[in-house]
Amino acid sequence: MERSFEELVAEAAEVSVAGWDFSWLAGRATEQRPSWGYQRLMAQRLAGASAALDVQTGGGEVLAGAGTFPQVMVATEAWPPNVAEATARLHPLGAVVVADEDEPPLPFGDAAFDLVTSRHPVTVWWEEIARVLRPGGTYFSQQVGPASVFEVVEYFLGPQPEEVRRSRHPEDARRAAEAAGLDVVDLRYETLRTAFFDIGAVVYFLRKVVWMVPGFTVEQYRERLRELDGLIRREGAFVAHTTRFLIEARKPAA
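RESULT FIELD:
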């Protein structure tokens, strides 16, 4: 029996959105993955490191799945529920989780790490990354690109200014890395397909990825959600496009 709009929305409004695990969306939404395989490449770099830092680790899911850690493995996270989840997940694997507000300075000494990683950081403090890297060390990161999933954003908020649509551009990241004294050795960019198959998936996504539609609540957008529910039922899915880029930057050797 097909579930009603009210049932789908109520369920998605109550489920926990702690951590950075999207498994609740299985069968309800799909997101095409970048071709490069960030976690696999991250694991290769961790295997060759002696001291590594994972910035904005979320619940530690990606780092935990990367395999063997170097002798020193540290992760930072700002959101208290994620700090608790990452601690429970990563401490048994030998990684220390540091609660950090994601504001400069990073709570580490100069040249503390030969590898810094980050998947989907909200903000990158490039000068701090350069400071904590040892000479010859590497920053390796997969990041959200410009206008990612903006079909969803603009459905609720309307057309966004060009400067907003262009923010998080990979070439801006290149320039910022170089301004901090790092050499960009790899930069790749892809546009990928995302599809939501029921309105509950949209509600869950917007509750979890809170910067997409700031201040989102079901009550505020109930009528817009009802219209989108009708569109999904007619067309089978609401399709959006995710953008991702991979950046690898190296600190020049002394």
